[in-house]
Amino acid sequence: MAQEAFTNSIRYANANEIRIELIYEPTQFFLRIKDNGQGFEVNHTTLNRGFGLLGITERAERIGAQLSIESRLGQGTETTVSVHREASA
Q1: For residue 88, is pLDDT > 60?
Q2: Are strands 28-35 and 18-24 parallel, antiparallel or unpaired?
Q3: Would you say residue 89 lies in a domain?
Q4: How far apart are CA 3 and CA 27, in angstroms?
Q5: How many other CB atoms are there within 10 angstroms of residue 65's CB atom?
Q6: Cα–Cα distance, 79 to 55 (Å, whole number)
């Protein structure tokens, strides 16, 4: 998912800054990819167009992750994947 979001930022967003964060907490972890690219309108059609966003969406569903894609035209895109961890005994 990180690789695809990163590739999208480079290939389509015309971003000159991309930040990738992996935040690990006791009960969950977050993967956040944020760019300062051209942005796009997030809707059902854009999420199902092409293999990039569709692949990210399908992978998130497969592992039970929450996926958030926020984007504004001219202001970039932020993709966040959060996964809850099971408590270990």
Answers
A1: no
A2: antiparallel
A3: no
A4: 24
A5: 19
A6: 13
pLDDT tens column, 8-63: 888 889 999 999 999 999 999 999 999 999 998 887 666 666 657 888 989 999 99
pLDDT at res. 69: 92
Q: What's the CA angle centered on 48, arms 76 and 61, to 5 degrees?
A: 90
Range of the domain at 72: 2-84
Q: Please name the amino acid found at residue 24.
A: Y
The C-alpha angle with vertex 70 and arms to 11 and 41, in degrees rounded to 5, equals 70
Query: How many structural domains does the chain have?
Result: 1
Dihedrals phi, psi of 46, to nearest 5 degrees:
-70, -35
**pLDDT score, position 72:** 93
The model's pTM is 0.83
DSSP states along 15-60: -S-EEEEEEE-SSEEEEEEEE-S-----SHHHHHSSHHHHHHHHHH
Distances (CA, A) of 73 to 30, 49, 59: 24, 18, 25
